[in-house]
Amino acid sequence: MSNLLALAGVNTHIGHYHILQGVDFVVPHGGLTVLLGRNGAGKTTCLRTIMGLWQASAGRIEFDGTDIARRSTPAVAQLGIGYVPESMGIFTGLTVSENLTLAARDGPLDERRLDWMFRFFPALKKFWHLPAGHLSGGQKQMLAIARAIIEPKKLLLVDEPTKGLAPAIIAHMVDAFRELKRTDTTILLVEQNFHFARTLGDTVAVMDSGRIVHSGSMNDLADDEAQQQKLLGLSLDAHQ
Amino acid sequence: MSDDALRVPGIDKIPLALIPAIALVALPLIPSLPTWVTLTVAGLAMGMMIFIMASGLTLVFGLMDVMNFAHGAFITIGAFVATSVLIPLAGWTQADSLWLNLGAIIPAILAAMAVAGALGLVFERVIIMPVYGQHLKQILITMGGLIVAEQSIHVIWGPDIIPLPKPATLRGSFIFGDIAIEKYRVVAVIVGLAVFAAMFLLLNRTRIGLLIRAGVEDSEMVESLGYRIRRVFVGVFVAGSALAGLGGVMWALYQETVSSAMGMQVMILIFIVIIIGGLGSVGGCFIGALLVGLVANYVGFLAPKIALGSNILLMVLILLWRPQGLYPVAKR
Amino acid sequence: MQRLLSGDYPRSRVLGIVLVLILAGLALAPFVFPGTRSLNVAAKICVFILLVASYDLLLGYTGIVSFAHTMFFGLGAYGIGIAATRLGPTWSGLAVGSLAALALSALLSLAIGLLSLRVKTIFFAMITLAVASFFAILASQLSWLTGGEDGLTYKLPELLLPGTKLLEAPLLGVVISGRIVSYYIVFAGALCLFLALLRVVNSPFGRVLQAIRENDFRAEAIGYRSVVYRSAANCLSALAATAAGILYAVWLRYVGPDTTLSLDIMIDILLMVVIGGMGTLYGAVIGATLFVIAQNYLQDLMKLASDAAAGIPLLPSLVHPDRWLLWLGILFVLSVYHFPAGIVGRLRGNK
Ligand SMILES: Nc1ncnc2c1ncn2[C@@H]1O[C@H](COP(=O)(O)OP(=O)(O)OP(=O)(O)O)[C@@H](O)[C@H]1O
Ligand SMILES: [Mg+2]
Q1: Measured between CB atoms, does B142 come within 8 Å of chain C?
Q2: Do C112 and C127 touch, CB atoms closer than 8 A?
Q3: Beta carbon pairs, A and B, within 8 Å
Q4: Is residue A87 lining ligand 1, measured as CB closer than 6 Å?
Q5: CATH number of residue C219's parent domain
Q6: Cross-chain residue pair C329–B279, CB shorter than 8 Å
Q7: pLDDT digit string, tens, across residues A148-181
Q8: How high is the ipTM of this complex?
Q9: Which residue's CA is the closest to the ligand 1 atom numbered 17?
Q10: What are the E-state strand segments in chain C?
Q11: pLDDT tops 80 at residue C313
């Protein structure tokens, strides 16, 4: 299996702060890679750097064989990369339908794909004409994901989709991601919820203080309690 | 779930109601009905012209967080360009024929909008682009741009106030019984409504409008969806400058004079209007402009001494009621 | 010296020499540059150094853009003008006028600050622009109090009038009249207040302001209530501007909308502060001196150039004496981009 995305020695500065200090990891084709790490490790910064929302000051970001580290955000998006930010980035003044229409850059909404999405995000159908600002937190998260995949994408970047969601909704989210994995969309998922991550992940990378401190298969990490404790103990303790 | 959950909440109507409310409050205060009608039409006309000049500024702010303190220069330049076209055509504008009048005024307006728009493009590229996201520098640099623009006007057109008579067919009034309504004001109201309607349709019924509305809320997310919002921004900036040029022509014909200071004078009103409306909101700008126009005319009649302060008072009152203006724009 | 300058040295030999020359020139102006016009220029320089320095406290040190600075300048000037007209040319009258103006400025600046300093830079700039223009209009409307567009011309206490001779014989060839006394009041007032401002910006308070300017978010996190600090800076700056207005009114014996309140003066202040160097009070000295001299003498020079260029198209109108603002405007735009620390920054060799 080749790699769809590969970061090598990526550095990112925000103002005077040196946030990413040489990040190296790969996202293999077709699978779901989880990026773990405690608060402030630099996960969000990493996704934003891939999207071109922060400019990397050094390093390579290879997507499908080309270096996209210096590209602008729209150019990166046009390569087929969808992004669901931590804040969800919903246009609250636009209706659900308008949010999705805008995301379908190549023309009118595809009915078949819409129906497919309504199967796992039924709320969107129900509130089709409601301004998105009135949706609940979970529904907003669904809209944000739906918006990112309304057109087929090669790579989907999702930042903490389970943040603030009730367990029942998280279970629902798991189903949605499973469904998505059946299409040939590669996913890079940032997560704090290790249980959720373990259920879905194929490979895993762990960040700390702006660097990758571990990467490998999810099964290996799931089986190795000691390793988990070492890499994630802090964050799990802090969160549970 | 009940049907209630499905109901789409409409736009906030309270600010809309302010306009008739103010007109009705003024009615018993003003001694005669014809005077009230005249003042109301004058207020609406003034409001429409301010709206035309202000709409681009507020949209640019909403979209890219840029406040152009030199916006007034586009107003002035529009007025001067139109003057340059109209003065040689004085024979046509002063002829008592609608067609000859239009034959002079339409090219004048087109020229004014074209020059103001082109200048907007240059301004955006040269002056504003390097200082995105730096508010302090933005204010300073656009003030500097204003100085240079005003001085350049002096170089080209001289420092004097130039008289600019209205075209013959737009002078005088429509008379209904003892009510007289100036023709030019009616035209201003019609043009203002047309511009507002066009903007409304553009923003709410087209894809580019969808993009603009989304960009006002969160331009980063729009870029993440693959749109080059910068291009949209330049387009809006140019359109806003061209509209400022149009407004400048209308304002100059209304006052029947052109001076290099006019842009800055109107700018104060424009700032008040877009603050009242909520920075970034076109609908708010429209209502704010009408409110300012009406209040200025009613107070100007009732208490001329405090007329000029009345708009500041209106602004303070509205900010005390809604600190973000009538229609606060959701920002990320 | 250390205490006088609050430890804030020019840090550049050229700058130091220029500053000493300006100080000496202003201190000895009545003797070195006799004549009404040059004394007027010297007095105006003193006043504008103070005015621009007080604006720099806001713009350069705190990162606030206010367009209401001329409003406070005008308040001071009108305070003197109205007091002298109403209460007669007495010292107590002047004192009452000054105190009233200072009190009003303090109240007004606090009100504006507390109401709108929490909001964004741009919003504050827009609100102050609106309020200041309202004030200018108010001054020209309330003609019973302010003399309207014509302004007020008034008498001052005997000691300050040009007709008063203090010494029988001329000193160093200069008649020591009330004018000279007035000039030294303006000079001393401006110098003391300038040194006071220097002390403020180099105090712990001044350093907090700069921290806030650099990073509002972090300063708040460290625990400084940035709104309180910014309001205090706004108020101090307003008071200093009022004082400048008071001195100006004492010098001119006239006050009107055009000399103190107009937006043109606000723009002049912006030009001086940016060209001289934001965030360095010495920039105010350089900026104000250059600007006032240019305003008064550059035009003569340009007239020569303009006459010389007669016949060439457009060129004469570009170097026409009235066009000096065009060139300053261009210089202003270039300095904002390329040397935000202005002339002083250049001299100090900053990047
Ligand atoms: N705009 C910014 N300006 C300055 N520092 C920032 C900015 N955004 C993020 N940082 C810093 O970058 C570091 C990494 O932040 P980032 O948001 O990438 O962490 P994260 O791993 O996503 O954390 P979390 O799990 O809490 O979302 C943090 O120390 C944060 O303070
Ligand atoms: Mg994060």
Answers
A1: no
A2: yes
A3: 70
A4: no
A5: 1.10.3470
A6: no
A7: 999 989 999 999 998 888 888 888 888 889 888 8
A8: 0.90
A9: A44
A10: 152-153, 254-255
A11: no
Does the beta carbon of A37 lie inside 6 Å of ligand 1? yes
Please give the CATH topology (third level) of the domain spanning A1-80+156-161+188-240: Rossmann fold (3.40.50)
| Residues forming beta bridges with residue A214, ordered by sequence position | A206
Burial C248-274 (b: 16+ CB within 10 A, else e): bbbbbbbbbbebbbbbebbbbbbbbbb
Q: What is the spatial distance between Cα B165 and Cα B146, in angstroms, rounded to a whole number?
A: 27
Q: Nearest chain B residue to A50 by CA: give it.
A: B224
Note the Cα C103 to chain centre separation in Å. 19
Q: Do B268 and C333 touch (CB under 8 A)?
A: no
Is the distance from CB of B115 to CB of B76 less than 8 angstroms? no
pLDDT band for C220, please (50, 70, 90 cuts): low
Rounded distance between C-alpha atoms, residue C170 and residue C165, angstroms: 9
Can you say whether the dihedral through the CA atoms of B176, B179, B182, B188 is positive or negative?
A: negative
- Determine the atom of ligand 1 nearest the C-alpha atom of A48: 18
CATH number of B14-321: 1.10.3470
* Gap between the Cα atoms of B235 and B73, Å rounded: 18
Structural domain boundaries in chain B: 14-321
- What is the value of pTM for the model shown? 0.86
The tokens for A12 are 């990112």
Q: Chain B: nearest CA to A21, how far in angstroms?
A: 24
Where are chain A's structural domains? Answer: 1-80+156-161+188-240
Task: List C-alpha distances in Å: A234 to A208, A240, B149.
Answer: 11, 10, 60
Amino acid making up residue C47: V
Residue of C nearest to B153 (CA): C326
The domain in which residue C170 lies consists of 2-347
Whether residue C167 is predicted with pLDDT greater than 60 in this model: the reply is: yes
Judging contacts by C-beta atoms under 8 Å, the chain B residues touching residue A129 are 6, 8
Q: Do A78 and B226 touch (CB under 8 A)?
A: yes
- Select from A101, A129, A131 the Cβ nearest to the Cβ of B210: A101
Task: Answer yes or no: is the C-beta of A65 below 6 A from any ligand 1 atom.
Answer: no
A107 Cβ below 6 A of ligand 1: no
